[in-house]
């Protein structure tokens, strides 16, 4: 690790900025892809602008880190953004609310994690929502909100509770006019049903694009 950091110290800011892959990934994207969290401070120390630089898909380094479940890189990126060189609280908000070409924020990407990685998603999702309670929870281009995705994918309810308790405003829609409660009923997630109804009882009566309420799917 030290050898990698020493090698990075030989690059100038201009060299960092010019080193990109064919799909526009910078050295910071690559570090995020391979969870090379120890390289993040060295890269950003020379070229802070890479923090928010997007590749050809519109993904910033934190999009890549979240999608790859590189928890340590996510933490390192947030720590740098919080610093004076990184821009402080405003920089953290800008980074966490960035959208790629599909309209996905980092939280959308985290919500797509499946299976054995769900525990790590829980940690990442909790970190993101804790850092920015006003995190953008609006829909992507497929009309999916992070809350809908999280419920629809059927994970444990730790992050759901975090989102419902701390995030304002929190949107809940999905494709075809369905809500997170529709998704919970369809997926048979009783523990999600209780939390969502307690959060917003009126979701019980909210119809989807076909005029069907969650009760119709029960």
Automatic annotation (TrEMBL):
Pfam families: Ank_2. It comes from the Eukaryota. The lineage of its organism: Eukaryota, Viridiplantae, Streptophyta, Embryophyta, Tracheophyta. This is Uncharacterized protein. It comes from Rhododendron williamsianum. InterPro entries: Ankyrin_rpt, Ankyrin_rpt-contain_sf.
